[in-house]
Amino acid sequence: MLDRRPPAPAQGRRLTRWCGGLLLAMASALPIAGHAVQVVDDRGTRIELTTPPQRIVSLLPSLTETVCALGACDRLVAVDDFSNWPQAVQALPRVGGLEDARIEAIVAQRPDLVLLAGSARAIGRLERLGLKVVALEPRTLADMQRVVGQLDALLGTGRGPALWREIEAALGDASRALPAAQRGQRVYVEVGSGPYAASASSFLGELLARIGAVNVVPGALGPFPRLNPEFVVRADPQVIMLADRVSELASRPGWPAISALRTGRVCRFTPQQSDVIVRPGPRLAEGAALMAECLRGRGRDVP
User: Fold this and answer.
1) Is the residue at 74 inside a domain?
2) Cα gap 227→190, rounded to integer Å
3) Around Cβ 101, how many Cβ atoms within 10 Å?
4) What is the average pLDDT across 65-69?
5) Cis peptide preceding 195, ω within 30 of 0
6) Which of 7, 111, 112, 118 could join 53 in a cystine, given CB atoms 3.0 to 4.6 angstroms apart?
7) Based on the structure, what is the number of domains in the chain?
């Protein structure tokens, strides 16, 4: 929560940045008249809704989780195949994902809004069928704050500012969890085979920076670049963090020489933990806490 006392200069600057970010988020979702709202999504497309949506299909887990965190879980009528939190969404119909959305199943739900990523292949077909589509795909913490504001405006819940304050407060707690002596560790985070990594410019890289770690993958490569495995060997991370589905590492050429493998400092997260970590949604602070646990030496396994 925000400090009730008059802010010190540094606190004042942080408050100003926070307010500025929230204003930008709200500016992309402007009221038109009454309950109507106008949204500019991540494609730059302007979508107008005359009333807050009551039948929502979400095709991205992070958006599903954010809708629920804003108190509108009961408006979801279907979700993608991977949305599994909170518990309430597990009983909803499944309608595919980014690459294989089942158009007929989506239309059958009579949605007044479909939420998905800008990279989803179904966007054109859904719009040609007359459905309202909003594409939002947060990749950074600033994106996440913006998306909270946009969804809050779309849904008309008024809970967006409080939700973001809660997320920021929890992130602050997670950032203080790592002792000073364990800060500065060089970390490599692999999010998919390829290998695909989370760079310093991704929300995962920003979370690492918040808790005091150093990402060995520079942000200039893009948020989630595909790397030459030799890059990781040269970077020689002290700690490696992996999703449970990532293949064994010791069989990769040159990787047994990496410091993290030589010392057994590899954290392989469970499927449930991986979901928390890789989704830029309301559980961001839980993901940061899991990474801090890894850096403290807990949850390791040697691949």
Assistant:
1) yes
2) 10
3) 22
4) 98
5) yes
6) 112
7) 2
SS3 196: strand
In a domain, 152, yes or no: yes
| CATH label of the domain that carries residue 127 | 3.40.50.1980
Tokens of 213: 């770690």
**Position 154 pLDDT exceeds 90:** yes
- Would strands 29-31 and 37-40 be described as parallel, antiparallel, or unpaired? antiparallel
Paired residues of 190 in beta bridges: 197, 242
What are the tens digits of pLDDT across the range 179-230? 999 999 999 999 988 899 999 999 999 999 999 999 999 999 999 999 999 9
Instruction: With a cut of 80, say whether residue 19 has pLDDT above it.
Output: no
Q: Using the 8-state DSSP alphabet, how is residue 300 labeled? A: B
Measured CA to CA, the distance from residue 286 to residue 155 in angstroms comes to 25
Residues 204 and 140 in one domain: no
pTM over 0.90: no
Cα 244–Cα 249–Cα 251 angle in degrees, nearest 5: 135
Residues 128 and 207 in one domain: no
Phi and psi at residue 279, in whole multiples of 5°? -100, 120
Indicate whether 80 and 132 sit together in one domain: yes
In a domain, 200, yes or no: yes
Mean pLDDT for all residues in the chain: 88
